[in-house]
Amino acid sequence: MRYISTRGQAPALNFEEVVLTGLATDGGLYVPEQFPQMSKDDIAALAGLPYAEAAFRIMKPFVGDCIPEATFKKILQETYASFKHDAVAPLKQLDSNHFLLELFHGPTLAFKDVALQLLGRLLDHFLAKRGERGVIMGATSGDTGSAAIEGCKPCTHVDIYILHPHNRVSEVQRRQMTTVLAPNVHNIAVEGDFDDCQAMVKASFADQSFLKGQRLIAVNSINWARIMAQVVYYFTSAVAVGAPHREVAFSVPSANFGDVFAGYVAYKMGLPIKQLIVATNANDILHRTLNDNDFSKKPLQPTLAPSMDIVVSSNFERLLFDLYNQDGQAIADLLQKFNQEPTQIDASAWSKARELFDSFSLDDAGILKVIKDAYEHTGELLDPHTATAYLASQQLAKDASTPIISLATAHPAKFEEAVIKAGFKQGAALPESMSDLLERKESYKVLPADLQAIQDEVARQQLASRG
Ligand SMILES: Cc1ncc(COP(=O)(O)O)c(C=O)c1O
Ligand SMILES: N[C@@H](CCOP(=O)(O)O)C(=O)O
């Protein structure tokens, strides 16, 4: 399997190189040159398999011969043994046709664990084989950070720097990152928003001279392995409700577009997906683009679903690249225009997207109402991100005979403020392993949203720890 850049100029890479490279040298994101295909029989054969075995069959074509089969199987078994639920991503039936895919049974209670528990292990495997160390820089609006730290903390070959927007993540989210006091873990609270953090991480890939030759690695969904691992639960959940003999729809809380793009990859691989609903909070750029072809930025608004407080959505570029028939130059031109002024995507590309995608946006008042109503009707306490997808699935489902699966992307215990504002006396309880989280010692540095200041800090820490 070869991977190519969405901007068309960077060299093609294999899986190992893609995992260790992050952003392409032309500023694009890597995607497989062709999507591997799963036949009806391949998909049907996933029924009843342990999650790690299904993951092996679905991911193997992406990995190619970069990892020996037995080693990859072992890595997957260890990865998914870290989840609290045997099914890893269990499906709960809410009514005759509506299902909730619980993706929060990993160590940090969000869907990011599904991919980041794997990515940490893949990085250790490749770096150990090469006898190298790497520096990870990641941006988080709340969940990627802790999942990346948890996934990479045991890695003996990496130092990790996570940038989060200061005072814009929930207290539980912040503490899940800042109370990990391992010597290779560094937290930076940036006086800005998530877009600032993500832009500085991407700029650091473009010019890595501050690292004096050390390798820079991405843990955001820039990294293809993140998307690849998320493709698996689209297959496993669809098979559980009748695929490949039946079409399935998904409703996905969305922001950086990595999760729903993984659904698109599953569709391209042959999974019979009838509809992908992109659900957003009040930061509605994805909804405006998909619904009205209004591809324009609006100022970022802090919301009660803070992990989705994103305007510049990284992975949308991967979808555009596919819709534009892999024309990297056209993507580079479009994104340059988008950065300067409101624009539109090409009409035929947009129409193609509309055949599969629908979209939805929900403000804070709506989120609170959904949390309350869903609890009354189903007994499920939804987190504020999941709430957007839950309502979207009810309002946008195409027909009553297609099962629709809403992705539950985080555990409500991470978002006490929203749960209390929705009318509950207290937030959901944290699991036993985290019961003392609010008393643990924290360590993080507050820095301005200034690239030089961030890179100086990383370089200083690297010098101090590695000499
Ligand atoms: C809880 C939660 N739900 C949904 C999302 C959106 O996922 P994506 O960025 O892959 O679109 C995120 C993070 O972005 C998240 O942390
Ligand atoms: N919502 C994310 C934002 C980063 O997205 P990623 O999927 O590209 O890592 C977060 O919680 O940090």
Automatic annotation (TrEMBL):
Coiled coil: none annotated. It catalyses: O-phospho-L-homoserine + H2O = L-threonine + phosphate. It is an enzyme of class 4 (lyase). The modification N6-(pyridoxal phosphate)lysine is found at residue 112. Residues 2-80 form the Threonine synthase N-terminal domain. InterPro entries: Ser/Thr_deHydtase_PyrdxlP-BS (IPR000634), Thr_synth_N (IPR029144), Thr_synth_N_sf (IPR037158), Thr_synthase-like (IPR004450), Threonine_Synthase (IPR051166), TrpB-like_PALP_sf (IPR036052). Pfam families: THR4_C, Thr_synth_N. Pathway: Amino-acid biosynthesis. One of its GO terms (molecular function) is pyridoxal phosphate binding. GO terms for biological process: threonine biosynthetic process. Its EC number is 4.2.3.1. Its cofactor is pyridoxal 5'-phosphate. Keywords: Amino-acid biosynthesis, Lyase, Pyridoxal phosphate. Gene3D superfamilies: 3.40.50.1100, Threonine synthase, N-terminal domain. CDD domains: Thr-synth_2 (cd01560). Belongs to the threonine synthase family. This is Threonine synthase. It comes from Marinospirillum celere.
